[in-house]
UniProtKB/TrEMBL annotation, chains A, B:
PANTHER family the UniProt entry points to: MARR FAMILY REGULATORY PROTEIN, TRANSCRIPTIONAL REGULATOR, MARR FAMILY
A Pfam match: MarR_2
Protein name (Swiss-Prot/TrEMBL): HTH marR-type domain-containing protein
Species the sequence originates in: Streptosporangium longisporum
TM region(s), chain numbering: none
Database matches in InterPro entries: HTH_MarR-typ (IPR000835), MarR/SlyA-like (IPR039422), WH-like_DNA-bd_sf (IPR036388), WH_DNA-bd_sf (IPR036390)
HTH marR-type domain: residues covered: 11-140
Length: 141, 141
DNA sequence: CACGAGTCCTTGAGTCAATCAAGCAATCTC
DNA sequence: GAGATTGCTTGATTGACTCAAGGACTCGTG
């Protein structure tokens, strides 16, 4: 679910458009993940370990408890999509790496997750730059 | 969690900006809901019943199983934020309506969910129109 | 009118995501 | 080295979600 809604009445046009865009993006993300047998959480983690990361880094980036990451990584490891390697510099810590299978699966997932690519393709180069600038400005960036 | 990620490597600027915007939006939504003791799911449902809706309509709009809606509505009803009224025209069906408490709480939630409002406020009127048009075009709308 | 099919919702069972509290092992600080 | 801190895991719980099954109601057809 997790479908934000916007006050049908009060919302201005931009706010409505933002909502629709966010909703479409979220929906596309989830659909793409499911198509490859991934939950959104699994896809998030799998995406992050494109480069080697510790459990703690994942927890921070994904804004959740470390024990949550443990649970997800264990499952991904059981499917041989990631490996947990010891960190030679700190034996408390573990480095998570994607396996080749994980790379393949995530690649396929990204292929399927066409939304941002398609959205960009619907715009001219100038419009893309404009949109980038406007989104960043809207976020105060 | 539910934090979409984007290929750190391959993503273009627009795609990166889209991701950041969506992520910020999602995060703001969840934070605002939590601040009022609502889960995202509860906030979604509460938002939709601004106007009277059947369980089935809610399930369809929120793209989930009817039994999921039942569960959420039961809890919202227990907190007296919504009421389930019989539909006189079809006694299988139930109409969900917000109570005054529900109106108040959702109003407060929207007040807290400042992200879209703030984002709009960071732009000039002309930029807002531009952004609306670009987002719609990007979605093929 | 009655029967069967379909609709609307609820219940129950089960899974995954998420959080918290507790604990263990390794590291750091003094 | 003792004690605090860090990094992760385990266990218990809660909530969101899905699916299968069932009850109540409606509708269409004969």
């Amino acid at each position: 679910m997790a479908v934000p809604s916007v006050p049908a009445s009060a919302a201005t046009d931009v706010e409505q458009a933002m909502f629709e865009f966010v909703d479409a993006y979220n929906q596309a993300w989830e659909a793409a993940a499911n198509e490859h047998g991934l939950s959104t959480a699994h896809a998030c983690v799998l995406g992050r370990v494109e480069t080697r990361r510790s459990m703690g880094e994942l927890a921070e980036e994904l804004r959740c408890d470390a024990s949550n990451i443990t649970q997800i990584v264990v499952r991904l490891e059981a499917r041989e999509l990631v490996r947990r390697e010891p960190n030679p510099d700190d034996r408390r810590s573990r480095q998570i790496v994607r396996t080749p299978d994980g790379d393949d699966l995530y690649g396929a997932f990204e292929e399927t997750f066409a939304f941002p690519r398609a959205a960009a393709a619907n715009l001219t180069a100038a419009e893309r730059e404009q949109l980038t600038a406007l989104l960043r400005k809207a976020m105060r960036g």
